Amino acid sequence: MTACSKAFVAVLLSLCYATLLAACSHGDSTSGGRVELIAERGTLLVGTTGDYRPLSFCEPETGVYWGFGIEMAQKIASDLGVGVAFVKTSWPTLSADVLAEPQNFDLAIGGITITAARQETMLMSEGYLANGKTILCRASEADRFHALADIDKPEVVVMVNPGGLNEKFAKENLTHATILVHPKNEEIPTLVAEGKADVMITEITEAPYYVQADTRLAAPLLATPFTHGEIGVLMRKGQEDLLQRVNSTIRRMKADGSLRRLHEKYGLVYAY
Questions:
Q1: Is residue 197 over pLDDT 60?
Q2: What is the pTM of this model?
Q3: 146-153: long-range contacts at Cβ-Cβ below 8 A with a sequence spacing of 24 or more?
Q4: Which residue in 107, 113, 124, 220 is a FRET match for 145, CA 20 to 30 A apart?
Q5: Are 134 and 222 in contact (CB under 8 A)?
């Protein structure tokens, strides 16, 4: 069991008694509203992948989570007047984990793109971070890639993480390139730098971090992403009271400048 998993188990055990009491007093999780249940529990449970620097990352040695999305979750919890605990999820299981019975967490955060498909079955907040698909490649080969057509060639090896929109984008748009699916998103930049793949499909939110962290890497198409979208908070339907509170936090942060300052802290493009 990883440090991140152990950290959550400890938090979960400490919350079990309070959760059971809340369930007994309300019969089910929706009878008194989700916000009321969270207030009684005293903790906001946040699902996050922990593999997506600089939005959500769990340090394997300590189990400590950090990142832009992590700070957003902490601000949401603070506005609710409760603490926060992070629950490990993954890109392949994200939707199933949000919809699980009993609930694994109250909401999910950290690099989750707002899409029509997600909004059909779940709730998504207003956007708080602009994003778009781009690439990482070796700095020595940055001049090789000027457009999607330069990537979609049989000799180009593209690596993606499983289950998310990066894999979906690659399989829909790169029909000639060789696509490799690697289970750990955070390992892919290093594998590209080492020559195990030529390109990583990623987001404009993630690429700058790895370019700064590893001089062997480049993001030559950062200014011209293939797609344009927004990242938001994901939760199950029936939690409109919680959605309203989350949106209220996002709007306040936009109005008072704290969202811009958080973007600047992590080197992210502010589009609001």
A1: yes
A2: 0.81
A3: 146/220, 146/221, 147/221, 148/173, 148/174, 148/226, 151/177, 151/199, 152/176, 152/177, 153/177
A4: 113
A5: yes
